[in-house]
UniProtKB/TrEMBL annotation:
This is Cysteine desulfurase. Belongs to the class-V pyridoxal-phosphate-dependent aminotransferase family. NifS/IscS subfamily. Keywords: Iron, Iron-sulfur, Metal-binding, Pyridoxal phosphate. Residues 3-366 form the Aminotransferase class V domain. Gene3D superfamilies: 1.10.260.50, Aspartate Aminotransferase, domain 1, Type I PLP-dependent aspartate aminotransferase-like (Major domain). InterPro entries: Aminotrans_V_dom, Aminotrans_V_PyrdxlP_BS, Cysteine_dSase, PyrdxlP-dep_Trfase, PyrdxlP-dep_Trfase_major, PyrdxlP-dep_Trfase_small.
Length: 386
């Protein structure tokens, strides 16, 4: 099987699997328990926190919170900050292309009485920093913008946005970094980021483990109650085995980030050339690389054709691809992200996402391109004419 759906989830590294199995077998005690086994589990938990901090260049372990995944991290960051700072103001800014765990969460806060500004993006999927600046008011307490888009790979100008918001001590800056870790560089210390979300299963780690970086001094109102774990921000017995394995996955991903990006950009270049050779296919996003598009995600449409048909035909030839975000792929609606980029409803309803991983090379890309050409040739007589 040729698995080209790494933006949805990644196969765990063998070292990560071994680490998780070992910790599950030997360190099953509750890390909050007072006995020796509990202390050992707690030590592993804090060592994992330190490993993650060192990998990201944030040396203060207490600034890292463990969650169940990127969705929970985004919810805790947005709802927690909104409620914690609601006496200061009730204005939140986000963009039209955010992951549902950000976009829908902001809409839920709107029903609580918060005012939400949703910024548009250009046809490359990039938000204007100038538009953000104009949208800021004295009531703006939170800006939440993703680093890399999960459908198209568009990269936002996080450093420029962070520099802008540094001038406003009253506005918290949250970045959804779930798709960027290990692919696109990010400097948490100098980028002006207050809150940063990440997920282990996007970097060849286990599912069910997420991270939330909380800059020292930032307040969050907890979403849950019933325990003092994670400094009272996220009660419940910690998933020690998953967290230790996740720490290894994050460390490996960040250590090899530069080499991975270079290799994946070469694969992306080859896939873009392949798409350009098939007149029925239309690229969604930028053909440029540097600073605009992530190395591992390519999105294209076959207008007039249901994307599920293409996905299933590719699967018959051992290729796994996807439509839209995995969190919304079962919906028949056009992609909200592609619509925001100016695509027609027909084009936005036919998007296909290809996302690379560590196991891919030139041979895998050549097979993908060959099968794409064949599938399109077979489907041409079935095009919907609208």
């Amino acid at each position: 099987m040729y698995y080209f759906d790494h933006a949805a989830s990644t196969p765990p590294h063998e070292d990560v699997i071994r680490t998780m199995a070992e910790v599950m077998a030997k360190h099953y005690a509750n890390p909050s328990s007072l006995h020796r086994s509990g202390h050992e589990a707690g030590h592993l938990l804090e060592r994992a926190r330190a490993v993650i901090g060192a990998a990201f260049g944030v040396t203060e372990p207490k600034e890292w919170l463990f969650t169940s995944g990127g969705t929970e991290s985004n919810n805790l960051a947005i709802i927690g900050a909104a409620r914690a700072y609601s006496k200061r103001g009730k204005h939140i800014i986000t963009t039209a292309i955010e992951h549902p765990s950000v976009y829908d969460t902001c809409l839920a806060l709107e029903r609580e009485g918060f005012h939400i500004t949703i910024l548009p993006v250009n046809e490359q999927g990039v938000v204007s920093v100038e538009a953000l600046e104009q949208a800021l008011t004295d009531e703006t307490i939170l800006v939440s913008i993703m680093h890399v888009n999960n459908e198209t790979g568009a990269i936002q100008s996080i450093r420029r946005i962070g520099e802008l918001l540094k001038q406003r001590r009253t506005t918290v800056f949250h970045v959804d970094g779930v798709q960027s870790v290990g692919k696109v560089p990010i400097d948490l210390q100098s980028s002006g980021i207050d809150l940063f979300s990440a997920s282990a299963h996007k970097v060849n780690g286990p599912r069910g483990v997420g991270l939330l970086y909380i800059r020292d001094g930032i307040m969050l109102e907890p979403l849950y109650h019933g325990g003092s774990q994670e400094r009272g921000q996220r009660p419940g017995t910690e998933n020690v085995a998953g967290i230790v394995a996740a720490a290894k996955a994050f460390r490996l991903a960040l250590e090899s980030q530069a080499e991975r990006a270079e290799r994946m950009y070469a694969l992306r270049e080859r896939l873009l050339a392949c798409i350009a050779e098939i007149p029925e296919l239309v690229l969604n996003g930028s053909t440029n690389h540097a600073g605009i598009a992530a190395p591992n995600i390519v999105n294209f449409s076959y207008p007039g054709m249901k994307p599920e048909v293409i996905v299933h035909m590719l699967e018959k030839h051992k290729i796994s691809a996807s439509t839209k975000s995995a969190c919304s792929s079962k919906s028949d609606d056009p992609s909200r992200v592609l619509l925001a980029m100016g695509a027609s409803r027909e084009r936005a309803a036919s998007g296909i996402r290809i996302s690379f991983g560590d196991e891919h090379g030139a041979a895998e890309l050549e097979w993908l391109c060959r099968m794409l050409r064949m599938v399109v040739q077979k489907l041409k007589p079935l095009e919907r004419k609208e």
